[in-house]
Amino acid sequence: MTQTINRSALFNASCFALITTAFSFSISAGTLKQLGDDLGYSAENLGYLNSLWFFGFPIAMIIGGLIYHSIGPKKIMKIAFLSHFVGAALTLFAIYFVSESSFVLLLASNLLMGIGCGCTEAACNPMIADMYTGEKMNKMLNRFHMWFPGGIFVGALLSELMSSLGFSWQSQFWLIPIPALIYAFLFNGKTFPKASVEQASSLSANFKAMITPLFLFIFACMALTAITEFGPQKWTGLIMESSGAKPMLILALTTGLMAVLRFFGGPVTKALGQTGVLLCGAIISTIGIYLFSTQTGAMVYVAAIFFAMGVAFFWPTMIGFVAAKIPKSGALGMSIIGGVGMFSTAIFQPFIGGWIDSDIAEQKALGLTGAELDLAAGQATLSTMMTFPIILIVAFIVLFLWQKGKAPSGALAH
Questions:
Q1: Do 84 and 180 contact (CB within 8 A), yes or no?
Q2: C-beta separation of 319 from 341 below 8 A
Q3: Burial 83-103 (b: 16+ CB within 10 A, else e)
Q4: What is the span of the domain harbouring residue 233?
Q5: Do 139 and 287 fall into the same domain?
Q6: What is the value of pTM for the model shown?
Q7: DSSP 370-387
Q8: Same-domain pairing of 255 and 331
Q9: Radius of gyration (Cα) for the chain, nearest Å?
Q10: What is the pLDDT of residues 89-147, one digit of tens each?
């Protein structure tokens, strides 16, 4: 059966599916301010649009993870393509044919795009694990996950190039369906590996392992690490437009550096340990957001380097921590931790939008206008966002002391 599986085609298709996820993130982040200005939406309205993407993602990821063994990756990826393609089509329709229903269409399109992205994670992670074994599996999973920051990097550069060539911000959304069509073509007609049935009978043990102080502590920390990473990135275009640096270049620099750092994540974690990586990440990301909130011009790119160094290892290390320290939670435990990260990011989007609106009103009352108003309000909002990593510094000091000297309980292959 394995001889009939074109692993290379399936893997490449998976990477293009993750690039679709990344494009939907970077293009919407880079055009957020223009969309709000042209369609007359407040920052809080834009926050609700962002939140639907982040809600759809974990819902699909968790449900897809639960049904993977019963329906297999092929059907889940069909749902992913349908969601990606229809979501992109609704976005294009809403921004080209503006009407009173545009906001509702954009809400629906963001939800569908999020569902497509969550289905991609739910199907491709275990599918790659089913196609490869041992060190080869770990290597291919790492290469797969590089394409989220890597895809954002490519999407941000393409967006910046299109803007410099005079293309409208609306035209940049046409980039999103391109990788979706490519992965649909690569998946078409291919034989998929059969879904493994490992741990299918241990859901009760998984849930029991999740009702423990350590898992609940990591659950709460994941909510803060995710918003620390995705909060500033998702609002880059709106917050940083008046900083004297190009927002899409900031996003490209951040995500490009994150992709490179994740490639070398193994040696870093071996040197510092998982809790050491998390604590250092919280400290460095606090410095990065502080620099974002105080600097302008070329120094904003320096801030982006610090920010990328701080958040690069958060997501994989949090998932890996659960695998190593709470192995009985199984694949479901890792899915739940990933899901809470996206749910947290969704919940905070309208709050961030509200902070921006409030800071704009406050700075306007002080007599600021134009670019000065936008810069002051954006930096004030970033100062508020510093709260997340500051709390994490305290939390990860506690975790470091809690886990000091404790050996892993035994890690799952992932």
A1: yes
A2: no
A3: bbbbbbbbbbbbbeeeeeebb
A4: 212-405
A5: no
A6: 0.79
A7: HHHHHHHHHHHHHHHHTH
A8: yes
A9: 21
A10: 999 999 888 787 899 999 999 999 999 999 998 888 888 877 887 556 666 776 788 89
